[in-house]
Amino acid sequence: MTVAAATSVVQASGLTLRYGRTAALTDVSFTLYDGVTGLLGPNGAGKTTLLRIVATALPPDRGTLSVLGADPRTPAGRLAVRRRLGYLPQDPGFHPGFTAFEFVDYVAILKELTDRRARHQEVRRVLDAVGLAGQRGRRIRALSGGMRQRVALAAALVGDPDLLVLDEPTVGLDPEQRLRFREVIAELGEGRSVLLSTHQTEEVMALCQRVVVLDGGTVRFEGTPAELAAHARGRVWTSGARVRGALASWRAGDGRYRNVGDPPADAELLEPTVEDGYLLLIDGPADEETGLVHEETGPALGETGR
Amino acid sequence: MRRMSVRVLPLLVLPAARATPWTAFLAAAGVGLAIVAVPAAFRVELGVDDLVGLLRAAAVCGALGLAFLLDDPAARTIATVPAPRPIRYAARAGVIIPAAVAWWAVILAVTGAGAGAALPLGGVTVEAAALACVALAVGAVRLRSSDAGGIVAAPAVLVLVVAASRIPPDLALYVPPGDDRWAAAHDRWAVLLAAAVAVAVWAVREPTRRRPAITAGRR
Amino acid sequence: MTAALAERPTAPAPLPGDPRRAMLALARVEAVRLPRHPAVIAGLLLFAAPEIYRWLTGQANRFPVLQDEDWSTQFLALLVLGGGVLIAANLAALRADRHATTGLYDTLVLTPPWRTGAFLLAVLPFAVLVAALIAVRIALLALLPGAAGRPDPAELAVHPAVVLLFGAAGVLLARLVRTVIVAPLLLLAAAVAVYAAALPSLPGRVRWLLPVALEQPPMPVPVALASRPSGWHLAYVAGLIALVAMAALAAAGARGRRLVVAGAAALAVAAGAGAAQFRPVSDAVRDARVTAAERPAEMQGCRSIGAVTYCAFGDFRSWTGDWDTVVRGVLRGVPAEVAGRPLVVRQRVSTEDRMVDGQVVTAEEQVAAAAEWQRIEPGAVTVGTRWGDGRSEMALAGLVAYRVVSGEAAPAHIPVCGARGVLVAWLAGQATPETAAGLRAVDATSWGGVPFGDMRFPVGFSVPDREMAAASALLRRPPGEVAATVARSWAELTAAGTSADRAGDLLGVAVPPLPPVEERTRCDG
């Protein structure tokens, strides 16, 4: 197995894409390594657009991109990428009349797995892997939302791809299913590269070796979850009452208030989480160089309370 | 509550008109119009039989188009709003029926203008109405369990038409004008029309499994 | 459960293969799904069920003319088999759009042209199924003892070809328009066009530019006289299939020289074969038509059974025994010395349609046409190229009875009144159960009198309702008893001037009173 962070799987620089007058992505650059990378950002940040570009579904207007050593903007490069890619779209459609097996088999054919026996074996393997061994013959219209999501993941896994692009894979799942999903994804991350988008910071904590924060179509952060959390070091404190000037202030389970922002001098500081770092990054004033991991140039806080 | 719902009806008509997927209907209506208008434009001499045949083909077009008019991608989103399902469908019907009637009037006018002899317009209109209602009824029934009704209703109309033209003569639905069986066949068409309307009315009820006293939707 | 993922599969995962094989694998999956589509199942049922029902209930014609049966189901095949495939193929090709799986499929390896190719190929197995269905049908018909003629393979092949064409059209439509309504509308438009092109008022042979050429020939003709350009038409449809398939591939994004070359070749085939259909009828066929009309004996074989000689075109030779059954049935009702006179029954065809709308035929023209008809062979009784429907049996029985009763062979569609009318109708009705059924069927749908003989021939006659009522009463009695009575009064009954009332007296049946003057049939004959 390769050492994590040694091989770059995706290299993007200066990716820009506009939908008419709306800029979806502006000058996005990042590098993806083996292991699980989380793409974090608010709604409309451009996560899905970026994932679709990486997954060869959408060509960028500008910028260079290398996926698995190939350039997806040329037909040959796109084909090379697609042969080694698994993609789970945000809202995967299903053919309700197909059984789980038929659907994944159909995707496998479209991935050009032509040998019938080997393909069927592969389809059974991925359905087993996502825990649908017992549901292979059931029609998709009879499956629950969580099961459908697993069918879609199985479809992404067919052919043992080197790069998995998963767009909000755990949305709509109940906690138990989400845990199961995380388990699967974590295992996939061993020896492969997984890029997944999410709203949920705890998922990043639980799964990702690296995290990219996207906001307003630009990369605001790239690093490890610990680094993102460290971003908020010294800016999270606890108090007995709501702090008006804080960026966020909420009453936690223990009855005390947890505050993010500029602490007063005598504040009782807390260990920051990824969420705190993310909050500071997104809700803080978007001024100079916040996209980089230099802690000393963090956003100025305090006067921007709610 | 009920009075409130009825008062909401006129307000719903305009949004219903905007939410209706007109493309399919317009395409079908256009083909139907072309079927009757082309011979009329080229002044092809046609007998009553052939003109009635053209009207029947146009009626099938209309039914095919209507099959898609009840489709509503937002159906699931608005399934639980207070305005009951029948009211929402009534608003749709308030848009669809005038459009269909206006189209059929144009078809009859175009065909009738070129006809020398009197055409049995009443009978053909009953056939067209029956086909249209079958299309709407099948669509409405399908929409109880799915988002897309037309996909089933349109082929169902075609199957019905072909089947109707192949049934034994003593039960025939499509009989040539002037035939002795014309009146009896149109009684059967009227029965079909009534049955389709009944099914459609049943299909737009709120989908409840128990008695209507429990108003919660099934989903 | 998830341990399978931790290590990558020990056997290397199947490597993505070449697109051609993937296309075949996809076509295989789609080919299995296609016949399972409700529209296709409904089409198969609508195609086969009425025919099976007719056979099970004994309403089917056991004397099929194979050169007609081979193409007479083409329009139905277009409508229900082609239509079913059109809708099913269109929905299948639009499936990804309808179920919003394009987001996923867009990133998969196989490119849209190859996928479209798979949808096109998926129609092939169903077309083979249709071909088998058609082949089995015609084989079963050919096995019937009463089968006449031989089928044209090209006409038979048009059935699966139409299925292929409509399947390809469904795929093409899906690539051009994302709306599902277009396919049913195309089907409807095609059906209307084919039907309209068959109208006799439409000029020339426009109908041959449509996938199926619907014709309403006056009657079946021997194979040698057939003028349908079936081979060229099949080539034309094949060209159309290729053209539509290439268009679908191009619409899916396929480019390249090979596609252009194939498209050009398909266009050339379609245009060339399409034009070739309009070549004038060959001299051989034209000569055969003249011969069949003027000197039918040259194309016929004759067979004598007792005193009766039956002459049939080669294709129809198997029917002479059945003709004989009817003729024997008629002769059973007449005195033995009359029945023993020689008689010739000759099969005739008429390739001109005398039933064209608006053509007014005067009585003088009728008589002239009948005389011209009889000039070929005076005294021969005409039999047509249809059999097994009851009416044809009744027509032959009527003409034989008329010949025996009146001594003339070619009545020019005149009313036969008086005792002759009663006697002829009774003789025809009592001949066989088939003639009786045919007489009942015609009687039920005619007004004023019952016509005997095919209106497309210049020879035939009708028996007015009054005489028919007496004949019907006779038919309800035991035929042997009536025959004995008839034999006793044969001379008077067959005399031209004997009235119906007199016949009623002689035969002991009630004859209805004469209708009011304005409703009476004019009886000149």
UniProtKB/TrEMBL annotation, chain A:
PROSITE patterns: ABC_TRANSPORTER_1 (PS00211), ABC_TRANSPORTER_2 (PS50893). It holds the Pfam family ABC_tran. Residues 10-241 form the ABC transporter domain. SUPFAM superfamilies: P-loop containing nucleoside triphosphate hydrolases. GO terms for molecular function: ATP binding. CDD domains: ABC_drug_resistance_like. The keyword Nucleotide-binding applies. This is ABC transporter ATP-binding protein. Gene3D superfamilies: P-loop containing nucleotide triphosphate hydrolases. Keywords: ATP-binding, Nucleotide-binding, Transport. It comes from Actinoplanes flavus. Belongs to the ABC transporter superfamily. The keyword Nucleotide-binding applies.
From TrEMBL, chain C:
The keyword Membrane applies. The chain crosses the membrane at residues 38-56, 76-96, 117-144, 156-174, 181-202, 232-252, 259-278. It comes from the Bacteria. Keywords: Membrane, Transmembrane, Transmembrane helix. This is ABC transporter permease.
